[in-house]
Amino acid sequence: MTTAPESLAPESLAPESLAPTDLAPAPLDREAGYAMLADLAGPAAASTLGGLDALAPGFADWIVTALFGGTYQRPGLALRDRQVANLAALTALGGVEPQLGDHVRNSLRIGMTREEITEVIVHLAPYVGVPKALAGLRVATATFAEAQAAQTAQTAPPAQDKGTDA
Predict the structure, then answer these.
(1) Among 152, 121, 161, CA closest to 137
(2) DSSP character for 19?
(3) pLDDT tens digits for 118-162?
(4) What is the pLDDT of residues 60-95, one digit of tens each?
(5) Could you give the 3-state DSSP secondary structure of residue 9?
(6) Contact 147, 105 (CB under 8 A)
(7) Are the C-beta atoms of 31 and 69 separated by less than 8 Å?
(8) Listed residue (41, 78, 85) closest to 63, CA to CA
(9) How far, in whole angstroms, is CA 12 from its chain's centroid?
(10) Contact partners, residue 97, CB within 8 Å, separation at least 6
(11) Distances in whole angstroms, Cα of residue 102 to Cα of each of 48, 63, 73, 85
């Protein structure tokens, strides 16, 4: 019969023995997470996570709390830098077009230009491959068009009623 290595003995798995004492605590602030998501994604945030709770109860809340209330709350990177990293990672992954589209929209919302977003994706081509960069550019192009259509709809004057005067 084999025994567990001493490092995996039950007494060595006590919570106080797992974390080194010199580590900074990781923030997990649910309220800050929802506030960050609202600032970053705006009204689209609800539709992005909507319906997920019916399929996987609690998963959307975990995403918001762990990512936007945890990782995004860490010091060291500006929100713009985090978005550049997100654009790069999602383009490199491929197959995550809805999430890439969300982050293209979020990048526009925080003030990145279309040219900057495009340049991030083009810059990736030699690193992640031309097909993934092209796929990322297709997502960006579609998202830019959606954003332009939404902006046009908001700024267009109301349609005039062309009814007949009696």
Answers:
(1) 121
(2) S
(3) 999 999 999 999 999 999 999 999 999 999 998 888 887 776 656
(4) 999 999 999 999 999 999 999 999 999 999 999 999
(5) coil
(6) yes
(7) yes
(8) 41
(9) 36
(10) 135, 139
(11) 8, 15, 19, 14
Q: Which two tokens stand for residue 96?
A: 């995550």
Distance separating alpha carbons of residues 49 and 64, to the nearest angstrom: 9
E strand segments, 15-164: none
Cα angle 152, 157, 158; round to 5: 115
| Separation between Cα atoms, residue 124 and residue 146, nearest integer Å | 24
CA–CA separation, 128 and 136 (whole Å): 11
Cα–Cα distance measured from residue 56 to residue 68, given in angstroms and rounded to the nearest whole number: 19
Query: In the block, which residue shows the tokens 């491959």?
Result: 129
> Are the C-beta atoms of residues 140 and 121 closer than 8 Å to each other?
yes
The answer to whether residues 2 and 39 touch, using CB atoms and an 8 Å cutoff, is no
| Other CB atoms within 10 A of residue 114 CB | 16
Tokens, residue 3: 């025994």
Question: Which is nearest to 87 in space by CA: 121, 60, 54, 138?
Answer: 121
pTM: 0.79
For residue 142, the 8-state DSSP code is H
Length of the chain: 166
CA-based nearest residue to 42, from 147, 130, 123, 139? 147
Positive/negative CA dihedral, 38, 46, 143, 137: positive
